[in-house]
Amino acid sequence: MTTSFSSLPIVDLSTLSQTIQSPASLVALGNQLYDVFATTGFAYLINAPLSFSHEDVFKLASDFFGITHAEKMSLAKKTFVNSNTNTYRGYFPTQSGHNGNRKEGFEIGTPKTPQHAAVGRHLKFNLDEANVWPETANFVDRRTQLEMQHHELQALSATLLSLLAVALGKPAGYFDAYLDDSLSTLRLLHYPPQATPAKKGDQVELCCTPHTDSGILTLLHQDKTGGLEVLSSDGKWVAAPYVPGSIVVNIGDLMGEVSGGRFVATMHRVRRDEGGRMRPDGMGRFSVPFFFEPGESCVVRSVDGGDGVVYGEHVRRKMRDWVEYEDLPDSEHAMGLPAV
Ligand SMILES: O=C(O)CCC(=O)C(=O)O
Ligand SMILES: [Fe+2]
């Protein structure tokens, strides 16, 4: 059950970078993560074992969103450009009529070859498809860097999950099956600047509407622009501004279920800029969530037992609520579901 809070806790991961990690310090870290996920469901992680900085992450986002509109649309998912073949990975443009969700995004999954045998290839959305990339010559280096960031964030997620497994009374390798053919997504997000800043006052204006994340856990890089807010159990939205050097971690709905309801997937949203928070480059706000996700055929069940769900089916059901697919008629969604 989420508790009331007025700021997010900070969890120091420096023990993970030590050459010799004492079992006691790992257990203590797991217990600390358990406590924050059982109360706020959200925390700042500091001293994470990552080789890249926030500047590196947002330079890549800025380089990607700086390419031409035509080039971005050549990478758009089939939903937006019917002649494109990518259905799940790639670009989604800012959708008109979505005033509370003014964002464009670019999503990459675990690097794989286009020949990879995909479980869901015959379905409308091929969750396991290869990534698509800008053809611009100078994006080759950036592609390598983005793939490396995906790899490191995946490794960090795996470490956090093994600590949580122990804190939940299970062996450290309890969640290892989640890593097989993992569908984890690195999503570059850009909230373009608006012609007028949000009005100050009671009427809150948003650029990302309130939601919980659907999967296991999310690791979020946000820039200094701010605007992220997290819902406390007393109904108050608590600001989660950028803390230097930190990444935000939060629990998704499915991990709430996996934990037998011990962990909470907390509602969050992003407020529109009220002026004064603009990035110096004038590009609006960037954030880069990494969604840790199991493989398509992984059966995910509560630590307390039960039938569980096949992860691919869970995602396809959840897609109906995702704003990036909101414009699709129901019949299109149905085609994304496996035949029963
Ligand atoms: O942009 C942000 O800071 C949060 C984005 C987010 O919550 C999401 O993509 O699920
Ligand atoms: Fe989210």
From TrEMBL:
- GO term, biological process aspect, one: small molecule biosynthetic process
- Which Gene3D superfamilies does this entry report, sorted A to Z? B-lactam Antibiotic, Isopenicillin N Synthase, Chain
Please, which domain of life does this record's source organism belong to?
Eukaryota
Domain annotation Fe2OG dioxygenase: ranges: 181-294
InterPro entries, per database record: DIOX_N, IPNS-like_FE2OG_OXY, IPNS-like_sf, Oxoglu/Fe-dep_dioxygenase_dom
Q: Which Pfam families match?
A: 2OG-FeII_Oxy, DIOX_N
Question: Is the Metal-binding keyword given for this protein?
Answer: yes
The molecular function terms in GO held by this entry are:
metal ion binding; oxidoreductase activity
Q: Which UniProt keywords apply?
A: Iron, Metal-binding, Oxidoreductase
> Which family does the record claim for this protein?
Belongs to the iron/ascorbate-dependent oxidoreductase family.
- Can you say what this protein is called? Fe2OG dioxygenase domain-containing protein
What does the record give as the organism's lineage? Eukaryota, Fungi, Dikarya, Ascomycota, Pezizomycotina
